Amino acid sequence: MKFLNTRPKKIIFWIVAPVVILLAVTIICISPVARYLVEKYDVKYTNREITMDLPYINVFTGKVYLRNVKVYEEKSDSVFFSASGIGANLEMFKLLSKTYEVSSFTLHDPMIRFIQRDSVTFNFADIIKKFASKDTAKPKVRKPPVHFNFYDLSIKNGTFYYVERSINVFYYVKKVNIETIGKRWDQDTIPINFAFESGTGPGTMKGRLTINTGNSNYAFHLNVKDFQLAALEQYVMSFANYGKFRAVLDADITGAANIKNRQSLNLKGQLSLADLHFGKDTAEDYASFKKLTLAIKQLAPAGKKYFLDSISLVKPYFKYERYDHLDNLQNMFGKGGNNVNSARQHRNVNILFQIADYIAALARNFFRSDFNVRRLAIYNAHFKYNDYALAEKFSTAVDPLTLIADSIVRSDRWVNLNLRTGLKPYGDVKFRLSINPKDSSDFDVDYHIQKIPMAMFNPYLISFTSFPLDRGTFEMTGKWRVRDGVIKSSNRITMIDARVNNRQKRNGARWIPLRVAMFFVRDRGNVIDYDIPVKGDLRNPKFKIWGAIFKALSNLFIKPVTTVYRTEVRSTENEIENSLQVRWDKRRSVLESDQEEFVEKIASFLKHNKQVAITISPLMYEEKEKEYILFFEAKKQFYLATHHLHAKELKAGDSTDIDHISIKDSLFVYYLNKHAGRGLLFTVQDKCGRIVSRQLVTDRYNQLLKERRETFMGYFKKEGVAGQVKMLPVNNSVIPYNGFSIYRINYKGQTPLELIEAYRVINRFDNKDPRKEYKAMREKNRHAAAGK
After folding, report:
1. Where do the structural domains in the chain lie, given as residue ranges?
2. Whole-prediction pTM value?
């Protein structure tokens, strides 16, 4: 080596060579040394085990890359954090100027598990505690300021898990990508772009967030598409005994607020929930809707501005059911909502409570603010009520309900809401509300409920009186004028042509002589018509019923002298009804004596008028018939078991005894509970359905239809006129207006003279007092009963 021949060169060589060798050794050894030190002292300084592959560290350029990093839970072999790679670029030379600067930092495929053990403790609490600053008694020494800069931070393809052990919640998001240009030490604003997908179902969420660390203000834009909210079911189950929930969230909103002040929110954009379902299980909903959409122009609670372009709710559905014990909502959430109250009192970390509280805080000043809802609409709503706490099921529904209101504005102009809907199985409702937007205690209400068959209330009448009605129509109208909470109203209840059927003797059913009661409340025109005004105020309304009582007492003196008139009317009505239809009692295939007389009269009429034919339209109340069959078959099993009999040993009198068993009988209910098995069975109908097969009920029903047909046609075969009778297929799709299965009779060729005369007589009655006032209403009800 000739360049070392001179002494100066040798000196330079022996100075530089060790430095170069030291640098080379440093570069070669720093990575394994760093790995060794991390794995040796990880628990001592972090309370966690840390593993990784051989890292790349360049102390001269400041580049660091860690591969396959894993951080474990404290004293556990479960992974708390992992990443396929962690890359950073540190500006080494700036350390000399007391500036720590990260020019780039990237997490590749990070995975982290956030575990919340109770309302305040997370699985990373030990790390925070370990690195928290500790107070010392030493006097603080003023040191030159140290500056921190970080730029170009990103998370690529992350997966974040969240576990809440106190209420058993598990959720995660995947494909998490977060980017920010970072923050300089003398700047307060941090812009962040983010995007991720739901881990438990389809749906994406992306947006941008700008945070000011100096004053805690933030601004955001959020875009949500098809984001599944089924994970919220886990929060529901923290206070529900059972249930299923799902929904889809879509949003495109922009806003700004302050982290420390909820009321500071200033929001605009569109938010929608779709395909929401909540109920007993995946097959039975208690509440649902197709879509709820809020189009927000400006929502600023602090500025008392609530400007909404529209609120629309499409196909909402709600079902309320009453059982022998509580109802469907209380069975789910505890008596009086005790489960919900208990969960709140124990301060469970439940995002549903937090959302509810936040919405309540935002809406607290709505009616005292400047609000404007350009359009409010509810389309095709369906609300259902079932009562199973009776001798038989009562069911009604509001369907379809549509409500549309335009320009709901806080101004001098009152807001008008108009609603019209149908009731199921029969009935119409008209409702009009006019309200002062500045004072909700000022409003007007007009309503009209009509075309409701009295037979619809038979489940209540049978349970409380033992007597059903097989005829009659209910109507109610009202006008309310309320100012400053003071009520001035009129309410008129009208029941036309109500007729009491035979008593149904069932053990457990109360007995009230309904025919006697009808004598008092019904006037000589076979109408119950009362005005019941309501006065007082909204907190203490007072019902004025003395007029109704006086009218009922007056019937004691008026009706006895009109007995002949009322008997003639009733006879004429029966003539018309029996000539046009045959009514079948539930689960019976024989006719009553007066019905036999009329069917024989029709057969005789056909025999003497060969050119005349009749068409029979069987309209069966399938749901109610099958319910009666189900009860009978279940009670029969109970009867056989308690009397130690076989089915072949039953006698005619036994069937009567079985009929008289109440479905609320304690021994029968005990038998059902014992043999129905486990499951969410709240009704007697459900329990009976467990011990009686659906096929058996269907077979018994089909047999009943066959027997009725044979019984009815037997009268015409006897007279040799069966060929003049055409029997149409059974109609099971329409519920009969008067609550009983019927055969409708249509005459072709000639109408019996007795029927024509009966029509003439009843028209004469309808055109004179006391029936004249209700003629139009009767005609309307006849059309409703005929399905027109």
Report:
1. 1-128+147-163, 225-387, 407-578, 585-750
2. 0.83
